[in-house]
Amino acid sequence: MNTAAEQHRPPAAAYAQAAETAGRAPSIHNTQPWHWQVHPDRLDLFADTSRALPGTDPDERMMLVSCGAALHHAQVALVAQGHTVETRTLPDPAQPHHLATLVISGDAPVTAEAVRLVQALQLRHTDRRPTVDTPVSPEQVDELRRIAGEYGVHLHRFTPEQVSELAVAVSRAEDAAAGEPVLRAETAAWTGPGRPAGAGVPPEFIPDKRPETDVGERDFTARGALPVGGGHDKSSTYVVLFGGEDDRDAWLRAGQALSAVWLHATGQGLAVLPYSQVIEIDGSRAMMRRILSNLGYAYIVLRLGVADPDHPLPGHTPRLPFDTTATVDPE
């Protein structure tokens, strides 16, 4: 990878590789709600509403965050191939689901940082198990805050008192979701035996029991097969990505920041668990705004910690075939 020959391949080949790499991005319920159009002169990102969650995500917040993460993954892939990239987000107001256009604007030396990000991209995963008793350092959080800021997104570390408020917000979000048959049906559709092939969350990635943690996790309506042990997450750090705007452009940038923060956290040896349920429910989203003292809108909450090295995850959640998430135009 990253050889001079690869730098001089036709741009369409580089775009196709970037779109395929972007398929590893995180998404709500692993829905992978994106579709790429690979052209000889550009790469276009669209939201694929056939994999949207109209009950859980009626405003398409988390769909846009998910697509923003895929956008960042594609940018990382192109830079690691030795290219400079120009990105235009939401390029056509008449097509709200046309989210971005990427164009290779030149060549550049491949840096060690670019290589590290691609390596982290291959390793990144969601870890729902309790973390071990190794604290996250202030320096690590400061670095992740800097990374988020590159996308115009703020990162706030919850104080112990705010973690207690977060736990209440998560609990209320879970209670609200449990009382809505449509939300439960959507969750079951993407986590149960009838989930789409190559997508959703299989049982081996869902805890076999509810972890006894201070901040509860998402209730997937059925127990999985992932052993969680007896940890309590006492050394975990909780952060929130937030900003001053609450619109499609902000959600797309939040997704880019999420991907960037997650890849750098992976490079730091940290495990990451997103909490999107507090954003999906109106009441808990309002609680998050109050926790932030009305300084901004919460985009997503992340738990950061160190995973137990003696109990690795079974691998990565499944991914859809490339020809499902991308269309390659003939040259």
UniProtKB/TrEMBL annotation:
GO terms for molecular function: oxidoreductase activity. InterPro entries: Nitroreductase-like (IPR000415), Nitroreductase/BluB (IPR050627). Residues 12-24, 192-203 have a biased composition (Low complexity). Gene3D superfamilies: NADH Oxidase. Residues 1-24, 190-214 are annotated as: Disordered. PANTHER family: NAD(P)H NITROREDUCTASE RV3131-RELATED, NADPH NITROREDUCTASE. This is NAD(P)H nitroreductase. It comes from Catellatospora coxensis.
